[in-house]
Amino acid sequence: LETHAASAPDAAAPAAETQAIGEDVAAIRDLILAKLKYSVGKSVTAASPHDWFVATALSVRDKVVESWLSSIESSKRTGRKRVYYLSLEFLIGRLLIDALTNMEMIDETRAALAELGVDLETLREVEDDAALGNGGLGRLAACFMESMATLSIAAYGYGIRYDHGLFRQRIKNGRQLEYPEDWLSFGNPWEFQRPEIVCPIGFGGHIDTETRPDGELRQVWHPGETVEALAYDTPIPGWRGAHINTLRLWSARAVDPLRLDQFNSGDHIGALMDRVRAESISKVLYPGDTTPAGQELRLRQEFFFASASLQDLVRRHISLYGDVRTLADKAAIQLNDTHPAIAIAELMHILVDLHDIPWDEAWAITQATFSYTNHTLLPEALETWPVPLMERLLPRHMQIIYLINALHLAKVSGEPDATGHRLAALSLIDESHGRRVRMGHLAFLGSHKVNGVSQLHSDLMKTTVFHDLESIAPGKITNKTNGITFRRWLKEANPALTSLLMEVVGDNLLDNAMVLEKVAALADDSSFQERYAAIRRANKMTLARLVQQRIGVKLNPDALFDVHIKRIHEYKRQVLNILEAVAIYEEIRAQPFRDWIPRVKIFAGKAAASYTTAKLIIQLANDVGKVINSDPALRGLLKVVFLPNYNVSLAERIIPAADLSEQISTAGMEASGTGNMKFALNGALTIGTLDGANVEIMEHVGSPNIFIFGLTADEVEAKRSQGINGQDAIARSPKLSEALESIASGVFSPDEPHRYRGLVDALTYHDFFLVTADFDAYYNAQRAVFRRWRDKPAWWRSAILNTAHMGWFSSDRTIAEYAEEIWNVPVTPPGRK
Ligand code: F58
C-alpha cells in the first residue's frame, strides 16, 4: 500500500495526460463529424477528401475564432496602437497545417482523423494554395503577418482578394504556358465575408471649390465613377494561438449589379458592362502592364485597395477615439513597396478635404503615420505613373501630389546646392521620360522611416535611388533585414528536423529561435550528424517520388541535390547555373570514368508572362535537361530537372530536401532574398554572391560554411562602367566558350538549332548581368562544393552549423525591430500557455 501511495503521483501523471489527449481527440473527432454533416452537408460515406478538408478546416477555425474575438476585444479595451500592413500581395499558401500547428492541435487532429480512417497528409494536399503574390515580396508579407500575431501586435493586413492569383504554369515542349489560377473554385473555408463593410471608391470626375462656413476654401471631389470595395476577413493565428490578427482583403463590386432597363430591353451583355468593369479590379493579380489599359487597371487596383483600407482604418480610429488628429498615436501604416503609396495622397484627401484639417497639420499626421519598405533598386521596377493618367483617374490626388511637391521643392530650393539638376532629381515629377509621378519619392516624403530589406540593400539605397532624398532627410533610411517564420519553414516543412533540434535545444525553439545556437556544439558529433543526415535522406526520397510523379524523371537520393528555385529573372542568373551544368556535361562525356559526384540540378520558378528572355531561359533549362537526362553516357551522374508550377507548397517540399542552395544573383541586384534563409535554416549549404542577405548569412554561419564567389557590388559597378562586353571573359575561359558554343549551335535544340543564338549573342556582346565575368569563379566554387561533399563529416558539420546559426533570421526578430524602431508598438514574445 505504502509503495503504491508513494509511486501514485508519478504513475498517475502520464495517465491523466493521456486521458486528456484522448478526450481532446474524441472532441475534435466529433466536431469534424458535425462540420462534415451540418456545414459541408455530406455523410461520412459520401465525403470526398476535399469535404474532409473543409470539415477539418472549419473545426480548427472554431478554435481560431474563439481566440480571434478575444484578441480584437482586448486590443479595443487596452487602446493599443494598431499596425496596418498595406500590401498588394500576400503569398500565404495553404493554411490547414499552419492553423493546426499554431493552435497546437496537429497531433490530436491527426489522431482524430485517423480514427475516422482519414489521413491528414491527404487533406493537406487537397487545399489550394492562396497564391496572392508573385514572389519574395508577397511571401514576406505572409511571414510578417504570422510573426506580428506571434508577438501579439494588434495588426491588420490589407490587400486585394484576387479571384485569380498568380497564374498556373505548365510546361509544354519545354515552354512555359500560363493558365488562370482558380483558388476559390471550391470555396474558401478560412474567410468571412463582411457584407456590412463596404467602402465606396471613386475614380475620375471633377473638383469643385467650395467655401467652408469659416471662410476657408475646400476642394470637393466629385468622382465620375464609383465602385465598391467589399471586405473579406481571414484570421491569422500566431504561434501557440495566443493572439490572432486579421487579414482584410477587398473585393471589387459594382454599385448596381446590372442595368435592369437595358437587360429587359434585350441587351443582356451591355446591361452587365459596368459590373464587369468594376469587378475587373480584383479579378487578377498583376494584370499585364505592357498596354495602356493594363497600366490603368494596375493603378486602379492600387488606389482601390489603398483607399478602402484608409477609409476603413480612419473610420475605426474615429469610432474608438473620436478625433482623427490622434491617428499617428494609434496607428502605424507600413507600405509594402510603392504599390500602396497613393495612400499618402488619399490620407491627405481624407484629412484636408473631408475633416477640414489644415494642410501642415495633415502632412505632419501623414508622415508620422506612414513608413515605407523598398524592395528593389532596379530602375525599371520603381513605379512611376504618367501624369495624364493620374490626372484623369485621380484628379484630386494629382492636385495633392502637386502641392506636396511644390512645398517640398520650395523648401529645398533655398539651399545653396539647389541646382536645376538637383531639384529635378528631388522632384516628385520625373520630367525626363514624359511627365511621370515617382511613387518611390512620394512614399519617401510621406513617411517618417524608409527601410531596405538587408544591410547591403539599405546602404545602396542611400547611394543610388534615394541619394538625393536621403541628403535632405538624413537618418530617415534605416535597415530591417528580412526574416522568415520558422513555424512554417522549419516545423511545417521539416517536422523531423524540428523534432531532432528540439531534442537538443528544448521545446521552446519556436518561441525563441536563438536557442538554435546550442546545436552548434553537436556539429562534429558523429551520431548527431548521422541522424541529421538521415532526415535529409528521407526528405530527398520524398522529393524524388514527387519528381517522378510530376515529370517522370527518376532521381538518385544519394546524389547532391543542387537547387535553384525562385522567379526566373536575368539578374537571378539561372543561366549561369545552366552554363555550369552544360560545362560539366561536356566534361563527364569527355572523361566518363573520373570520380564524378552524382548531382541533380533542380530548377523551379515562373517567368512574367511578358518577359520573353525569362521564358526562353525556362525553355533552355528544359532543353538542356532533356538532352542530359537521356544521355546514357552519363550513367545518371548528372540530371537537370525543371519542376513546373513553383509555389509555396512546392517550396515546402523542395527546401528540406536540398543539399545546395543557389543564390547567385549579380551582386547589388537582389535586395535581400528570403529563400536563401529557408535553405540555410534547413541545412543546405549556400553557393552565392555577396548580394542581399547572403552577406549577413555568411556573417552568421561563418565563411567556411558557405561558398561565396564572384564580383562584389562595388566591382560590378566598376566593371559595368568599363563596358559589358563578354568577349574577353569568354576568350579567357575555354569551358565557358565551349558551353556557349554548344548551346548556340543547337546541341540542346536540334529541332531549332538557332533557338538560343540571340541569348548567347547577348551574353557575348551585352552582358549586363555579368554572367560571363562570374562564370569561372562560379565554376570553381562548385568544385569546392564537390570537395566538401566528398568529405562527409565536413559537409554535415557545415550543414549543422548553418542550421545552428540561422536563428537571427526569424521574422520574429525582424518584426520586433520594426515594432521598436518604426512603429513604436510593444511586443509580447510568445511563451507556453
Ligand atoms: C523581392 N521583391 C526582392 N518583388 O526581389 C527580394 O530580394 C526580397 O527578398 C523580397 O522582395 C522581400 O523583401 C519582389 O518580390 C516583386 O515581386 C514585384 C511585385 C510587383 C511587380 C514586380 C515584381
TrEMBL record:
The modification N6-(pyridoxal phosphate)lysine is found at K678. Its cofactor is pyridoxal 5'-phosphate. Its EC number is 2.4.1.1. It comes from the Bacteria. Pfam families: Phosphorylase. Signal peptide: none annotated. CDD domains: GT35_Glycogen_Phosphorylase. It catalyses: [(1->4)-alpha-D-glucosyl](n) + phosphate = [(1->4)-alpha-D-glucosyl](n-1) + alpha-D-glucose 1-phosphate. GO terms for molecular function: glycogen phosphorylase activity; pyridoxal phosphate binding. One of its GO terms (biological process) is glycogen catabolic process. This is Alpha-1,4 glucan phosphorylase. Phosphorylase is an important allosteric enzyme in carbohydrate metabolism. Enzymes from different sources differ in their regulatory mechanisms and in their natural substrates. However, all known phosphorylases share catalytic and structural properties. Allosteric enzyme that catalyzes the rate-limiting step in glycogen catabolism, the phosphorolytic cleavage of glycogen to produce glucose-1-phosphate, and plays a central role in maintaining cellular and organismal glucose homeostasis.
